Recover the amino acids of this structure.
């Protein structure tokens, strides 16, 4: 439904770019009027995810179209977002890759014809270019095998798509999106959500 891919400088106000994306999704698709947006920032990078979460919460409180319709996942009581390689097994690189591979092999990945890309549109980057980048990163994503120094243990796999100094951010966000879906759906009490309604109306945003 939406995709953004742009460089960020120290002066970039990420929260504004993110809330613009949420506003556009809500405005562009009437069927999302009552949809609950589930925001799942990656929290491996210090306080960035917490700052983004607080900005989204404030935005949701001031914008009538979002009020009561934005949920932000949290890793625990002190950290907003989700962490790759964290304590939850579903967030291991192996599991993330397996989920993404299953979706791709079953041909369930689709781009909407009205793909939302607010920031890239402003920079003159077309939807076609964005989709090509995404597909390229998915195709490049794979594992490096690292032999174990202990002969009794199997070699380890290091999953990434950064070969040749390339980025793999879009491929990683896709994997995080699938994990966020599972984390959200298995905790209805925590996020005060009915499972059936979520399955029909939930939109996950990383």
């Amino acid at each position: 439904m939406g995709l953004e891919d742009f460089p960020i400088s120290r002066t970039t106000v990420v929260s504004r770019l993110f809330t613009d994306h949420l506003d556009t999704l809500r405005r562009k698709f009437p069927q999302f009027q009552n949809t609950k947006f589930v925001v799942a920032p990656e929290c491996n990078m210090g306080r960035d995810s917490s700052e983004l979460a607080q900005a989204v919460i404030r935005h949701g409180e001031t914008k009538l179209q979002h009020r009561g319709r934005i949920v932000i996942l949290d890793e625990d009581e002190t950290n907003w977002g989700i962490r790759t390689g964290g304590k939850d097994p579903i967030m291991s690189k192996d599991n993330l890759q397996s989920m993404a591979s299953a979706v791709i092999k079953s041909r369930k990945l689709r781009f909407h014809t009205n793909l939302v890309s607010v920031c890239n549109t402003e920079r003159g980057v077309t939807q076609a270019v964005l989709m090509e980048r995404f597909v390229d990163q998915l195709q490049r994503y794979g594992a490096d095998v690292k032999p174990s120094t202990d002969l009794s243990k199997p070699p380890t796999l290091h999953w990434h798509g950064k070969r040749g100094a390339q980025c793999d951010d879009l491929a990683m966000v896709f994997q995080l999106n699938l994990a966020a879906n599972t984390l959200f759906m298995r905790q209805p009490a925590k996020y005060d959500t009915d499972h059936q309604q979520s399955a029909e109306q939930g939109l996950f945003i990383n």
Observations:
- The beta strands are 37-39, 70-72, 142-146, 156-160, 203-205.
- The mean pLDDT is 85.
- The longest strand covers residues 142-146.
- The two ends are 12 Å apart (CA to CA).
